[in-house]
Write a structure and sequence with these properties.
The chain is mainly alpha-helical. It has ten helices and two strands; from the N terminus they run H-H-H-H-H-E-E-H-H-H-H-H. The protein has a two-stranded antiparallel ribbon with strand order 1-2.
């Protein structure tokens, strides 16, 4: 019980830190209708509606507007290095980027889906990947200090749009895995001064990363009430 309480407290602490570290101080208000036209050039990689055709590129559809805008701004400024995006945002101002974020956020993400898999732990044991992924997502790993992913990303993986926490449910497992490893190595470092994702990812093994990435790919967010 003590480890669960400790882990929950850590998750709540990270939630506060992540919200402060990831949100820009001020953002333009996006216009989804205007963003549809401006996002046309994004469609080649991310799909016209934000459902990218390949796991190399993330799905943007249904992602939180606040989170999307921060990532777009970070990529343009160089705070987040994405080689494929070099020069793609040069002609966009902040309003353009806000409109694009609003457009993709308004679209519906198509679920990638999970797949049965076995993963090999550092101990040498081979375990069910989906079960391990579910455990990490819902309860973390008290032994290594990893908090439950759902503490920030919600029990259904839909994220927390107002706080700027990204949606994970339905995203390509390959993409989620790549980003977690980038945070772990420090290659991606735009998680703010609190270094929340780098701190968490540093404690995750390859097996845990693969398992949780596969698990969230099949999560279905609860429907939102109109």
């Amino acid at each position: 019980m003590n480890s669960i309480v400790k882990n929950t407290a850590l998750a709540l602490g990270l939630t506060v830190g992540l919200g402060m570290g990831m949100a820009p101080l001020a953002m333009a208000e996006g216009d989804a209708a205007a963003g549809q036209t401006k996002a046309a050039q994004c469609g080649a990689c991310h799909g016209a509606d934000g459902n990218s055709p390949a796991p190399t590129f993330p799905k943007l559809a249904g992602q939180g507007e606040k989170y999307l805008l921060k990532q777009i701004m970070d990529i343009k400024s160089g705070a987040r290095e994405v080689p494929q995006m070099v020069g793609q945002l040069d002609n966009f101002n902040e309003q353009d980027m806000a409109d694009i974020a609003a457009y993709f956020s308004s679209q519906n993400m198509q679920l990638s889906g999970s797949k049965p898999m076995k993963v090999k732990l550092n101990s040498g044991d081979t375990v069910d990947g989906l079960k391990l992924g579910r455990n990490i997502f819902r309860a973390g790993n008290p032994e290594t200090g990893v908090p439950a992913c759902m503490g920030c990303h919600s029990p259904t993986g839909k994220g927390n749009a107002p706080a700027g926490f990204p949606r994970l449910s339905g995203q390509y497992a390959e993409y989620v895995e790549t980003q977690l490893k980038a945070f772990r190595s420090g290659a991606r470092a735009n998680d703010g001064e609190t270094r929340v994702m780098r701190t968490v990812a540093k404690q995750l093994s390859d097996a845990e990363i693969s398992a949780v990435a596969d698990y969230v790919a099949g999560l279905m967010p609860a429907p939102t009430s109109e």
